[in-house]
Write a structure and sequence with these properties.
With about 190 residues, the chain is an alpha/beta fold. It contains four helices and eleven strands, in the order ββββαβααββαββββ. The longest helix has 12 residues, at about 60-70. The protein starts with a strand and ends with a strand.
Length: about 190
């Protein structure tokens, strides 16, 4: 079973192949997550990407999803699991706090990373709600789009942004500000 953790950053989930631009020892393939040449067509069972998809704009994601579809298995066996900042929930946090600083990170996400060629700065290029992300997935060859509960995944014990809450780490009473969506490759 081949499971990819695309944009893994510091997180090293056992059983996953880590792909990221970052230069860290646990990363198996140090490359952009839209370049998966090291994997054959229809060879991957699961792509998991937590809060990295929003670093591509809405035009770039068409090519990203094309590449991800290429490596995913057919016939309902290839699963795409995405986590991105949830625009609806960020608005809810803003309305509750009336403090824009509480949502700037998830909206614009400046991240400094060390790569094999030096420091690089990444920024979020877009934001999604359930409807917009579902539409993009369906328009680009995915189906059976639904929300997933991070508590019921094989990566539930690895705190990443799919478990992002406001207030921070209040997983009992806070607002989940991550939009967690799963879809399968159509065809």
């Amino acid at each position: 079973m081949i499971q990819l953790n695309l944009g893994c950053w510091h997180r090293n989930i056992p059983g996953f192949i880590n792909v990221d631009l970052c230069d860290m020892p646990h990363i198996h393939h140090k490359t952009s997550i839209d370049k998966l040449d090291m994997f054959e067509d229809e060879s991957v069972d699961l792509i998991y990407s937590s809060h990295s998809f929003e670093y591509f704009d809405r035009f770039e994601v068409v090519e990203v999803l094309k590449e991800w579809r290429r490596v995913l298995k057919r016939g309902g066996e290839g699963v795409l699991r995405l986590a991105v900042p949830d625009f609806d929930k960020l608005i809810e946090v803003y309305k509750q706090t009336n403090d824009i600083t509480k949502i700037l990170g998830p909206l614009y996400g400046r991240m400094e990373i060390d790569t094999q060629v030096g420091k690089k700065y990444l920024y979020h290029k877009t934001v999604y709600d359930f409807q917009s992300l579902s539409s993009i997935l369906i328009d680009n060859g995915f189906c059976d789009v639904k929300r997933y509960d991070w508590k019921n995944t094989i990566h539930k014990d690895y705190d990443d942004h799919s478990q992002a809450y406001y207030p921070h780490m209040d997983k009992e009473n806070g607002i989940l500000i991550s939009l967690n969506i799963e879809a399968i490759k159509k065809g």
